[in-house]
Design a protein that fits this description.
alpha/beta, 9-stranded mixed beta sheet, 6-stranded mixed beta sheet, binds flavin-adenine dinucleotide, 29% helix
Length: 367
């Protein structure tokens, strides 16, 4: 019998394999597509932030920075002596209209309690800091400018975690797990992303297609933060000499990953040009789509021990933030598996009992 089997070698799977291996557990990771053609993490925007409503999500975002900043030491291996995640610490800027402002003022209390280091300004002062923004229709904005948020290269981060887990003894193999009961191990971790329901039918996590466009603009702002325009739901960030922009229109029941090209003209371009007048001159240069691992109950993570099994743990349902939460989730699951409870960030609010009781714990700031 195996010691630990992790089903799914995406970003949550490798982070969990790394932390468990560090504690001396013998981990086997089973991944059905080692080229990761449809996995969510390589198709993500790489963003990491602490600007959330709920304290647990704020704290997971804080730990992401701490972990990513140290990987040149912690994830160093013989094979990969200089690991990097290519961090771009441009910060985040979240823009709120009057419809979200009250909630955001509440969120700021949580930011303060967690010492998140975010800054808040009224919309009428926004142009003093970000001269490219049209503040019309906005009430308030929150941002960071001290290199504590930004984005990374998801593939490089995954690679660094995987290499270190392997050096610590983890084994990776190709395989498609059809049923959780086919696995014989002391501990099983389901890290199957948006495909979790195929393994654990009572977990309401399904693929939700989400399109990202690549655009070019004569005016380039390399220092621009990852900006989320909450009134339209559109978000964007610089990427090399171009920009990436996410559509607010996510779709269920899409077996293919063809981007929703019409969203660009109908939703994304108008919202971009409204908020950054220079974006009127955009040219579409490409795009792709990937699946969010959407928790249809409350858009929040589902993490912990599955109450119907002796030995099955799971982590899924990150709905657009699994990359940034992977270090905190890998560490937290390891604490739970080894000691029976969380030792650092208390993640019990993400437990599975709330799902069965249909008790929503909605995180409002999904981008
Ligand atoms: C367009 C887009 C933008 C995003 N932007 C961000 C962002 O900026 N920041 C952020 O933090 N997050 C972002 N996300 C979300 C993030 O990518 C996901 O939340 C995260 O990748 C989930 O990690 P995971 O390991 O659970 O799933 P995945 O990365 O999908 O990995 C799951 C793996 O499990 C394997 N698997 C599944 N079932 C089985 C089985 N039965 N047997 C064997 N293997 C199996 C799959 O092949 C897959 O490789 C974005 C997602 C998308 C699509």
């Amino acid at each position: 019998m195996d010691d630990v089997v992790v089903v799914g070698g995406g970003i949550i799977g490798v982070a969990t394999a790394y932390f468990l291996s560090k504690e001396g557990r013998k981990v086997r990771v089973i991944e059905r597509d080692p080229a990761y053609k449809k996995a969510s993490f390589p198709l993500s925007l790489g963003g990491f932030r602490r600007q959330f409503f709920q304290k647990e999500n704020i704290n997971l975002g804080k730990f992401a920075l701490e972990f990513i900043s140290n990987i040149s030491n912690t994830l160093k291996t013989k094979k990969n002596p200089n690991p990097t995640a290519s961090m771009v610490p441009n910060g985040y800027l979240l823009l709120f209209g009057p419809e979200h402002a009250k909630e955001q003022y509440e969120a700021l209390k949580n930011h303060k309690a967690c010492d998140a280091g975010t800054k808040n300004i009224p919309a009428n002062k926004l142009k003093e800091i970000f001269n490219w923004v049209n503040p019309e229709g906005l009430e308030t904005a929150t941002y960071t400018d001290n290199k504590i948020e930004g984005w990374i290269d998801p593939h490089m981060f995954h690679n660094a975690l995987k290499n270190k887990a392997i050096e610590l003894g983890a084994k990776f193999e190709k395989g498609d797990v059809k049923k959780i009961s086919d696995i014989k191990a002391k501990t099983i971790v389901s890290a199957a992303g948006c495909w979790t329901k195929e393994l654990l039918g009572d977990i309401p996590v399904v693929p939700q297609k989400h399109t990202v466009f690549r655009v070019k603009c004569p005016k380039h702002y390399p220092e621009m933060p990852l900006t989320g325009d909450l009134p339209s739901g559109v978000y964007w960030r610089p990427e090399g000499k171009e920009y990436l922009a996410g559509s607010p229109n996510s779709k269920f029941d899409c077996p293919d990953l063809e981007p929703e090209w019409d969203d660009f003209e109908n939703l994304v371009w108008p919202a971009l040009a409204n908020r950054v007048p220079e974006f009127e001159q955009l040219k579409l240069t490409g795009g792709w789509a990937g699946y969010y691992d959407c928790n249809t109950l409350d858009n929040n993570a589902i993490v912990g021990k599955h109450p119907k099994y002796e030995n099955v743990f799971l982590a899924t349902g990150f709905t657009g933030r699994g990359l940034m939460q992977s270090p905190g989730i890998g560490r937290g699951l390891t604490e739970l598996i080894i000691t029976g409870k969380y030792q650092t960030i208390d993640l019990s609010c993400f437990g599975i009992d709330r799902i069965f009781a249909k008790k929503k714990r909605t995180e409002p700031y999904v981008l």
